Amino acid sequence: MTNGHYTAIILAAQRPGIVNPLAKAYSKSHKCLIEINGIAMLQRIVKNTMAASNVSKIVISIEDANIALSIPEIKRLFDDGAIAFVKSELTLADSIVGAIEQVGIEHMPFFVTTADNCLHTPEIIDYFLNQVRETGAEAAFAMTPDTLVQETYPGTGKITGQHKLIDGIYSNCNMYAITSAAALKTAELFRQGGQFGRKEKRKALIPVVGLWSFFLYRYGLLTFKGMSKQASRALKIKARGIKMPFADAPIDADDQISFDFIEARLKEREV
């Protein structure tokens, strides 16, 4: 572990009452246990997060630590004191807030990500966190321009989640930062709207960000910078969107198509 100062929270729990199709296909209780190019998803994201120079502590949020400890390398890291566990809550938002409460707000700032981001590298993580520091953001989220994804990987439009703005289409990277106590309210975005915009849940964001902000976002009337300004105004904190120059950053193992794509990419990397 390096001398960085972020506490990383890796969300690895399975949502209650939901059978993940990938986990079922690979006969696993949790998607994060599936091996992709020979290494469990959770092990991959832990390894790459640990290697990021901005991260000093890693905490895994999951229902039962024994689930993750079934991965031998995760057990070794835990036995060595390199990682810790917190108990997840029923919802994504509550799991984030609960993890921060269990870890202790004195360990802020926090970096939050999910266990299926198998293409995230230390370079990607450090770029995001360096930008968060440079902008002075209290809350931040990472997005990659879809033009970059399509130029790098033509025909992969269905793999990434897309947000239409005035200055282009952007894809969420599942990387978030919380650097102040006031910014904890951003967890409400997960509770009300999912991971920044699943289509069926977007209307639930209205009470959080306000009707005008939602209208501007919903109808693509914001620029990338404008989205940060609206979020800052609505949440009364300094919120920033970080534009990522990495085509791999927004591609997570969400279904079999994206899983196969990621595995092929990892095989190219790890020859």
UniProtKB/TrEMBL annotation:
- Origin, by domain of life? Bacteria
Keyword annotations of the record: Magnesium, Transferase
InterPro entries in alphabetical order: MobA-like_NTP_Trfase (IPR025877), Nucleotide-diphossugar_trans (IPR029044)
What terms describe the molecular function in GO for this protein?
Answer: transferase activity
Residues forming the MobA-like NTP transferase domain are: 29-147
Give the protein name, as stated in the record.
NTP transferase domain-containing protein
Species of origin: Kordiimonas pumila
Upper classification of the organism: Bacteria, Pseudomonadati, Pseudomonadota, Alphaproteobacteria, Kordiimonadales
